[in-house]
Amino acid sequence: MNLSTFYKQIMDSGILCPLQDKRVLIIGDGHQVCMPDGMNLVTEEIHMGQYVLANGGVPDIYELSTVVNESRFAPIPTMLTGKYQGIIVVSGLEKEENPVVSLQMLLDILDAGGFLFCVTRTPKFNYIRNSLSEYEDLWRFTAEEFKQILGEESIKVFIEEPAGHYMAIMAEHIVGCSAVDCPLFSYRTETRLSVDDLRTKGFFADCRELDKIGSTFNTDKNRFYHNYLPKYEFFLAPFRHKNFNLLELGIFKGGSAKMWEKYFPNAQIHCVDIDENCKSVADDRIIVHIRDLGIKENVEQLRSIKPSVIVDDASHMWSHQLLALFTLYECLPSGGVYILEDLETSLNERLYPGMDGGCRHNVYDVLSRIAKVVGSKELETDVDELSATISNIGLKTEMFSLMKGSCVLIRK
């Protein structure tokens, strides 16, 4: 059962009827959920914060995109006025640094006797079936954990989809009751941990600064989505205070450009995008180039920037990714870093169909061939027309590192 079907199950059950005609706050982070027609409470569609009440009313919305002090829930008490009779958390708890604190923030703006309704993924959830970003969850939840956090007497309804991948609870806010800290199920370790213990887990646990900045500027490289940034910081920290040029291909709304500018105070940030609106991001240290990166001449012109760091986060089409790599890798200096993002388009054609751009070479397969040259230090035999270029890049690469969805090549 997918999330949309689970929501239909919830609506059909009538669980949310107590919130009808009440002042309701809905919190979510970008899920699209189509609701059945004719429902009186929430919604024909939930997508990127666009919520519409079927009865014509519009509830208050908090879109989980702003991050303050590592919690996307943190701004809620100061941004919103008054109390609510109902709060619906569509998604987001799984990625909070401290879900207990986040739940207490919601209780603080909930009327006594009001209802808190939360939908979460459980430890049984299989991320491969769904969005790859869900692989980066910090936590998963069970009914027992909600009973410990909110108090067993407050839990009025519990519902779980048949496979047990999603669950929902409705809790009543009882006067004098507060959220109670307890160990939670860590998706990283598959054990129950305290929040403080989780912060120490993993090789990149101390690489947190770039992610804090990236979360502030809401780039999808942050831990709430791709979770690239702790790994990037490990490789990019030596550049922190150097004077150099960084080249990023594709900037979307500019969050990553602002992140690089903040993290590298002495760098020039060159950004390339096909969208004219991206010019609005430009300032003294952010230079925006409007180019179609599917045209070889446009990519060749970028060599003159002489970047020390290149980040390819553009169209994610195979043909574009390979054109950029084959054209720009040569212009990196010794010790330069090339980051190629969003390999999902090569690895999961079910989720990302039609991304070849007319290219018969899967980007992941090409990178695997480069990695073999890096490891063996031997030229690739004449497999096809790419062999010479693959051998050239491989022999000039000191290190090749692969992570979920991205890879890093370091130039000799």
Describe this protein's structure:
The protein has 13 helices and 19 strands. By secondary structure, the chain is α/β, with parallel strands linked by helices. It has 2 domains: 3-198, 3-Layer(aba) Sandwich (Rossmann fold); 209-411, Rossmann fold (3-Layer(aba) Sandwich), CATH 3.40.50. Helix content is 26%, strand content 24%. It starts with a helix and ends with a strand. α6 (209-216) packs across α8 and α12 crosses α13 (387-395). The strands form 4 sheets. A 7-stranded mixed beta sheet has the order 15-14-13-16-17-19-18, with helices on both faces. The model is unreliable at 30-58 (pLDDT under 50). β6 (84-89), α3 and β7 form a beta-alpha-beta unit.
What's the helical proportion of residues?
25-40%
- Characterize the overall form: elongated
The CATH topology of the largest domain, please?
Rossmann fold
What is the topology, as strand order, of the major beta sheet?
15-14-13-16-17-19-18
**CATH class label of the largest domain:** Alpha Beta
Mean pLDDT score: 85
- Which structural category fits the helices and strands? alpha/beta
From the coordinates shown, what is the CATH architecture of the largest domain? 3-Layer(aba) Sandwich
Number of strands: 19
Sheet with most strands = 7 strands, mixed
Low-confidence stretches: 30-58
Number of structural domains = 2
Classify the beta-strand content into a percent band. 15-25%
Alpha plus pi helix count = 13
End-to-end Cα distance: 49 Å
The value of Rg in angstroms is 24 Å
Can you identify the CATH superfamily of the largest domain? Vaccinia Virus protein VP39
